[in-house]
Amino acid sequence: MDALLPDEIGAVRESFIRFMTDEVVPVMPDYEKRGEFPRDLVAKMGAGGFFGPVFPESLGGSDMGFLAMTVICEELARLDSSLAFCYNQQGMTCPYSIYVGGTDAQCATYIPNLLAGKTVGMWSLTEPGGGSDAAGNMKTVARRDGDVYKLTGSKMFATLANETDVGVLFAKTDPEAGHKGVSAFIVEPKKYPGWTADPVDFVGLSKSFRSCAVFLEDFVVPVENRIGAEGKGFAVAMHAVQAGRVSVAARGIGIARACIELAADYAKERMVRGSALATYQMVQADIADCVTLVEAARALTYESARAMDADLPANRLSSQAKYAAGLAVQQAAAKMSEIFGGYGLAEEYPISSLASYARLFNIGEGAPAVQRILIAEDFLGIKNADRHPTSYRHPRGKPAA
Questions:
Q1: Separation of alpha carbons 32 and 243, rounded Å
Q2: Whether residue 241 sits in one domain with residue 225
Q3: Model-level pTM greater than 0.90?
Q4: Could you tell me which residues are beta bridge partners of residue 214?
Q5: Which residues are catalytic?
């Protein structure tokens, strides 16, 4: 697969692997033991340009595109699943929502610092009990009060909401209008009152990068921090989610590759009845199945990224890629854990944590059931998945030559 990458993307992969190996892998376990957010590592990753591939140079990005971002996300998850948790907050859905729907002034004010890792991002759509119908079940309300909005309600699974400097949050400015009543806001919790974020404990997931429940009580957002017009928030969210699917798929593939690599190393060393586990055909069969599923999902994900880079319709492809990656990572986590036997449940073996991250990236940016409906309805001619023309690489129009 690497042989099919352009030389410059291959160079990005190698540069990023060196960064992770030298700067992150040796120190991240200590942050996890302390439950401390590694703001310095986020800043180093930003300084290296690794959050900026899909953004133009004028906003601090590298303008290398979605394929470069996909390769970075894949290797990030393979080498450190916890740090992979925060990529969308810094380099995809959070800044991308501002890029898609914000003004030039909003983009210039917020995006460069997010990409540089100088500020910590967040993206919050989901609410308690909201499930996959985020707009229909949204209860959080934004009331206009002169030059500000006051937001009241609650959010769920808002990653880094306890650390964020700048985030994107969705609330209803018209509670009776369904998805047409949803508006998007740039939020600054450290600057304005009314924000409480409580980390949620998850089995096997990071203690440094926390997902949170957020409680809003007349939380203040200046009117100039609204992204686009009132009622246009859901369109911004869906554009960002569709683009973000490829990053979630890539991280799922990275987790799956990590599971397979760990299991393969263990199988070569673990002796059973005088032979290495790797010599047993049932073990080989499981590894073969997982490798094939991963490579198939990887091909779909790369193809989706290439379509986005060419500003071609990609919602169909990204849904297929996300679903395929979810199948691959779930299979890899389950089958590779079996190779470890009882040790697959021990915290000292990384495979136990990877199994939790496999579930996370299987659900993120649209649960499998949602992707199956979208894919099936598209194939059956019920709803064309690419019925809404969308520009991913240049959502604000191509820059002047």
A1: 30
A2: no
A3: yes
A4: 155, 197
A5: 365
